[in-house]
Amino acid sequence: MRLTRRGIALPTAMLTRAVLLVMLPEVTSTRFIVGSNMGWTSNVNYTVWARDKHFYVGDLLDLVHDRNQMNVLEVNKTDYEACNSDHPVHDWSTRTGRDVVPLNSDHPILGVVPS
Ligand SMILES: *[C@@H]1O[C@H](CO)[C@@H](O)[C@H](O)[C@H]1NC(C)=O
Ligand SMILES: *[C@@H]1O[C@H](CO)[C@@H](O)[C@H](O)[C@H]1NC(C)=O
């Protein structure tokens, strides 16, 4: 699998950073549709999207995207920075165009164009 849309990785790292700032215990979980009605795509500024939201461990990120254009992979920091999708920590893709990722780790998420 090769990443051909480099730009997608960056906004999510920012989102992950925003998530880390507010990791407090919470009993109820919230489900966020990432990017709201724009979904998970290459031209949304997710820093802006995440700005007024509070994320907690156990919340769910709902990634709505074009299933023919993207897979959703969780990678470690090295691979994220190298934009390398060859060794994902977790492949969240269901190939349905709607993948749900629980917020229970601090790994960045890459949107990857399937080869
Ligand atoms: C997204 O918006 C933030 C805050 O306005 C800005 O600092 C950042 O540069 C923007 N990122 C991109 C990729 O445009
Ligand atoms: C990430 O995974 C790659 C490939 O398995 C490995 O070489 C690298 O050391 C890992 N980095 C971290 C921070 O765990």
UniProtKB/TrEMBL annotation:
Domain of life: Eukaryota
Keyword vocabulary terms for this entry: Signal
Keyword flag RNA-binding: no
Keyword Signal among record annotations: yes
Annotated ranges, domain Phytocyanin: 30-115
GO molecular function list: electron transfer activity
Signal peptide stretch: 1-29
Protein name: Phytocyanin domain-containing protein
